[in-house]
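Input C-alpha cells:
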C-alpha cells in the first residue's frame, strides 16, 4: 500500500470512496468508543472532473478543514504508485497526488479492502441476517472468516480473516479481483445468456452480468433470447420498467440478476471459507 508518508491516525482524516461513477468524500473522526464518525459528506459524479486530484481539490476548498492525513479507497487494484481506476478514465500517482493536495500523509487502498476493514465496526443494528447465525456461545473458535462483495459500476470482492493470537486478535484482509472471474451458468437459460454475451465479449466475467454495466448486458441478452426489442438504455430504466411490468424482459432481467448475484455470493463464501457471513 504505497503512501507519501507514514499515516497519522490522530485528528480529522480525509476519507474518500472513488468508484467508476461516483467519488465520495468526507472527514472522519473517532467517537468516544473509537468508532469512526463521518461529517461533511459530499458526492460528486466522476464525469464532473478530469481527475481525482481536481475532485479532491474541489472538496478540500469547500470544506476548508485542517486534516491530519488521508485515506482513499479506489475501485482498482493498488499494486504500485501508479493507479488506474477501473470503469473510469482517472489515473494518478499516489505520491504526486499527496504532494499536490499538500496532505501530511496519503494512503490509497482498494475499495473492498476498505469495506472489509469496516466489518469489525458493525453492530447488531447495522446487520440484516439472511440466514440462521450460530450463537456466540456455541462457536468452537474465536477465529472469524467473512466475505464481502457488492455490485456497483463494477463488481467488488474482498474477504476478512480474524485470528486469535498471543497479542490479541489479528485482522487480515484478502484483497481480490474476484468480480473478473469467469461467469458459471447453472441452468439452460443462463447458458443461453452466456452464449449471447460470448459473441460480444469473447470472455464473460461475473462483472459483465452483476454490476450496473452488467445489468444492461443482461437486459440485452434477455431481450435477444425472448425475441423483444432492447429499448432501455440505463440500469435505472430497467429497474423502473421491471417495477411497472412484472412479466416483461426488464422484470426477467432483475429476476436473473438477483439469482446470479445470489449464486455468486454462495460461490464466494465457499471459495473464501466465509463461515461467519457474506
Amino acid at each position: 500500500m504505497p503512501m507519501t508518508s507514514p499515516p497519522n491516525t490522530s485528528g480529522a482524516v480525509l476519507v474518500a470512496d472513488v468508484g467508476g461513477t461516483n467519488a465520495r468524500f468526507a472527514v472522519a473522526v473517532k467517537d468516544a468508543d473509537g468508532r469512526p464518525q463521518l461529517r461533511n459528506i459530499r458526492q460528486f459524479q466522476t464525469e464532473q472532473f478530469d481527475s481525482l486530484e481536481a475532485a479532491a481539490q474541489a472538496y478540500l476548498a469547500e470544506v476548508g478543514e485542517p486534516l491530519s492525513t488521508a485515506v482513499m479507497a479506489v475501485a482498482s487494484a493498488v499494486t504500485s504508485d501508479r493507479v488506474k481506476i477501473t470503469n473510469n478514465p482517472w489515473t494518478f500517482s499516489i505520491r504526486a497526488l499527496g504532494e499536490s493536495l499538500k496532505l501530511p500523509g496519503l494512503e490509497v487502498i482498494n475499495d473492498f479492502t476498505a469495506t472489509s476493514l469496516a466489518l469489525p465496526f458493525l453492530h447488531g443494528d447495522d446487520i440484516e441476517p439472511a440466514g440462521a447465525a450460530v450463537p456466540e456461545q456455541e462457536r468452537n473458535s474465536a477465529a472469524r472468516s467473512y466475505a464481502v462483495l457488492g455490485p456497483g459500476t463494477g463488481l467488488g470482492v474482498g474477504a476478512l480473516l480474524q485470528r486469535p493470537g498471543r497479542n490479541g486478535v489479528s485482522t487480515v484482509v484478502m484483497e481480490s479481483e474476484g468480480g473478473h472471474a469467469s461467469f458459471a451458468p447453472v441452468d439452460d437459460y443462463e447458458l443461453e445468456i452466456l452464449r449471447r454475451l460470448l459473441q460480444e465479449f469473447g470472455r464473460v466475467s461475473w462483472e459483465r452480468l452483476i454490476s450496473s454495466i452488467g445489468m444492461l448486458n443482461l437486459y440485452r441478452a434477455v431481450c435477444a433470447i425472448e425475441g423483444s426489442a432492447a429499448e432501455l438504455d440505463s440500469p435505472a430504466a430497467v429497474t423502473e420498467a421491471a417495477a411497472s411490468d412484472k412479466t416483461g424482459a426488464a422484470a426477467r432481467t432483475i429476476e436473473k440478476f438477483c439469482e446470479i448475484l445470489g449464486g455468486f455470493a454462495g460461490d464466494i463464501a465457499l471459495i473464501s471459507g466465509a463461515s461467519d457471513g457474506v
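The domain at 13-118 is CATH 3.30.420.40 (Nucleotidyltransferase; domain 5). The chain has two domains: 13-118, 141-278.
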